[in-house]
Amino acid sequence: MKMSNSINQEIGTRRDEKYRHIYVVIEHFEGQVVPVSLEMLGEARRLMDDFNQKYQLREKVVAVLLGSDVRKLCDELVTYGADAVIYANHDELKYPRNDIDTRVIVQIAMDAKITKEIEPEYAGTFVKPRYMFFAADNIGRHLSSTVLADLESGLASDINKLVISDLDIRHEHKTKGQTVRYEKILEMYRPDFSGFLWTTILCLDNKNPEIQREYHPQGCSIIPGAFKPIDKDDSRDGTVVEYSPKIDQEPKIKIIKRSVIEKTIDYETCKIVVSMGRGIKDNPEQNIKLIEEFAELLGAEIGITLPLSKKPYQVSQSMDSKYMSPDRVIGTSGSKISPTLYVAIGLSGAVQHIAGMKESEIVISINIDENSPIVDESDIFIKGRMEDVIPKLVEKIKDQMQAISVRST
Amino acid sequence: MLNVGVIIKLEPDFSEGNVSYNSDGTLNRAETKNILGPHSAIACNAAFYCKVKYGARISIGTMGPPIAESALKQAQVLTDAEELNLYSDRLFAGADTLATAEVLKNGVEKMFGADKMDIVFSGHRASDGETGQTGPQTAWKLGYTFLGNVMDFDIDLDRKVIVAKRLISLQGMDTIIEEIECPLPVFITIDPSYKSAFSTVSQRLGANKYSKQGRKKSENYAQFLKTYDSQKLDLDPKLVGLPGSPTIVYRVERIPRAKTNRKTAIIDPSNPDNLTPVVTKIIEIARGK
Fold it and tell me: E strands within A192-291?
């Protein structure tokens, strides 16, 4: 009885809340904001507008930007939805480095004083951000991990849907088996590795008196391409605040050299892309050869699904190094493409894959299973085994091409 | 002599013939075998490279149920490890990445009788969880400098400094290879593109010798195995397992199919004539019309 009282005291919106605002950690590269950062701002904007209306609050979308010369990027972030930008300029912040970036972002997140310039009413009780967004890419994935480890709070990775709601939670540990209302909880949706299941992850305070503990910010990393930026609005107003980072120790990581590597495959310029999935399994080597011949005939580039990049098949070394590699993955963990023609062979169409090819102009799929999701995403679905269908297509294409060339001579 | 640690994970074997899927496309965990995860194996290769090239003793650690011993054994084959550590306790069950990192931090601190470590490797990400967060969080808790996506590295033993190449690829931007330098100790997650190259004859001979030794040792891997529960790891039970996890899994559902505007024409290829209009269309596009 006593315990349930102490739990109930936590309930209710209070004016003295310690956790406020969404902080969005921005990435930039050679003077340009990386697209995922604008996508995160867009989603933060939509969430915050609903949130403030629902709870009658004035919490903000706060962009956090580190670099050596980044003032010039701040206004752009405002036009894409930020209410405020906290930026830090320092020579040591020129390129992303996990050690120093983590320390500076933690400093900014814990700085109540700076939030006075963002929303004075909430600054007095501010302790940490309420929510924090990072990009789920080579930089943000690790940065989100170390920042949240330092802030000792929860983090969900690779998110493609977000909802803020009040939830009644009953949990063995979090609430000691009692039903407790949690307010303003970020429901973080994460597609699992198969692409068929969606897991909703919550970051919740422990309200069980025996292990009582507050977990804020509620952090996540967001899949590039999952959300849309808002339309650029030059009339938007925002507060731009400079932060002077305290860099008391020299960063351990020293960058010696940065070199740009040319992409081995440039899907952006491909008119036709032929992709294969796990359906090659009955005879991988033979089927890859079929697909190779088909693609060559059309002058197409070859793509793969994520499961194939994990090398689930034994094929010869030369084929393996040619195709089963992560830089050929089409989907959220690889390239997002929009060719004139996309031919999907032996792939079922997991949501991550669809996200990478749905902008294709025309989609033809070849699959034995007419219930697989790729069918809905196809203009033409050829129901059959690739071993049967591809040779027929190849033969017919050769015939027709020959006929055309004969006609034209 | 370097002290090298490797954090590994027992994972479902996604290779064909071993993996089993339910009819709805999800993984059938009961029917799927478990093995040393492929990214963990790459981390093992990197540790083995240290042993051959610089001279190192290797300690492997994993958090999991007793069955995770099998992953430690496989890792010993790959690394000729001197020490295998299983962090296993019912209290650890249900841990999210932060609570897992708490266990692994204390685990690494106890490697080689609490000796100082020079490098700890872990895989890029697990095949079944795929968060990629555990490595960097463990590094941060340890106070080691974290280096992610390392494709290649070299160690200057005199200066106790590592020079590493890292891959940075961001959405819509050029891919960058960054060469960095950093004093030891470091915590490294190895990029899937990493390949250990033994360039000299003596390295190849060394690799052969240690490989044989590793296989031999693994036959009696139990001799090298130390098992730690939360007490032996000096862990606060409030910081591990479910109680120590900020996050919970609230709901699992099937992802609804995306809305699409395409009207799908279904073609039966058993009559090749049905394919003719498809082929005409394909050729039209291929010829740029």
Answer: 197-203, 218-222, 239-242, 254-261, 272-276
SS3 B143: coil
What residue has token string 């912040």? A93
- Residues sharing a CB contact under 8 Å with residue A84, sequence separation 6 or more, in sequence order: A60, A61, A62, A63, A117, A118, A238, A239, A240, A241
Residues A155 and A46 in one domain: yes
Residue A253 lies in a domain: no
B30 close to B2: Cβ distance less than 8 angstroms: no
Q: Return the residue in A36, A40, A138 with the most chain B beta carbons within 10 A, the one to mutate for interface testing.
A: A138
Query: What pLDDT digit, counting tens, does each position of B142-159 carry?
Result: 999 999 999 999 999 999
Residues A6, A209: contact at Cβ < 8 Å? yes
Q: What is the pTM of this model?
A: 0.86
User: Cβ of B248 and A202 within 8 Å?
Assistant: yes
ipTM: 0.90
Structural domain includes residue A2: no
Domain carrying residue A295: 267-408
Q: What is chain B's Cα-based Rg?
A: 23
With CB atoms and an 8 Å threshold, state whether B169 touches A400.
no
Q: How many domains does chain B have?
A: 1
Determine, yes or no, domain membership for B235: yes
Decide if A250 is inside a domain: no
A201 contacts B173? CB cut-off 8 A: no
Contact A155 B247 (CB under 8 A): yes
How far A117 CA lies from chain B's nearest CA (Å)? 30
**Total count of domains within chain A:** 2
> Is the domain of A105 the same as that of A177?
yes
- Is there a contact between A377 and B96 if contact means CB atoms under 8 Å apart? no
CA distance A47 to A75: 21
pLDDT in tens, A171-226: 999 999 999 999 999 999 998 866 778 999 999 999 999 999 999 999 999 988 88
Mutation site, A174, A314, A396, interface B, largest B CB count within 10 A: A396
Q: Is the pLDDT confidence value at B283 over 80?
A: yes
Tell me the nearest-neighbour CA distance from A346 into chain B, angstroms.
14
Contact between chains at B131 and A158 (C-beta distance less than 8 A): yes
Q: Which chain B positions have a beta carbon within 8 Å of A343's beta carbon?
A: 282
A72 domain residue, yes or no: yes
